[in-house]
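Lab channel / #folding
Pinned by the channel admin:
"Please post every new chain as: sequence first, then the structure tokens as a reply. Keep commentary short and put observations after the output so the thread stays searchable."

First post following the new format, from NK:
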Amino acid sequence: MAWPEGWDWLDELPVWDPPEELRGPVRPVAINLAIKMLSCDILSNEVRVLVGGFVAEYSRYNLWFFRDAKVSGKDARQLARFSGLAREQTRLVYESWQRFRDATASQGEDSEVRKSIQLRSQELSEALSRAVDVLQDAKSSPQ
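Reply from TO:
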């Protein structure tokens, strides 16, 4: 895309067009993803707690961004980076969720399917925890 002079850094920002399945029932994609995850019957309680933490931190991050970051005197590049950060973390969690969901639908020997589900559940837990950490760190970052 052709940007005004000095704005070509916008091409460096991550771009993600969320899939149709995450476009409802509400506007925030992260909340729709959480609804999908919490609606999964075989998601462990441990992962459900992490989903709740992700929703809470996503909400706190948005409060911070709209209440504090936008009026903090940060330049356009910094604000654009902060603006896309929650969406990027949502994308990473979604990709991990997809792998978990695929594992739950896989066919094969029960022990192998169980092992695959456990592995993907651990990966989902790590993605959720990482997303929370990234959003928390961004709020305390001087940049």
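NK: The mean pLDDT is 89.
TO: also worth noting, The radius of gyration is 17 Å.
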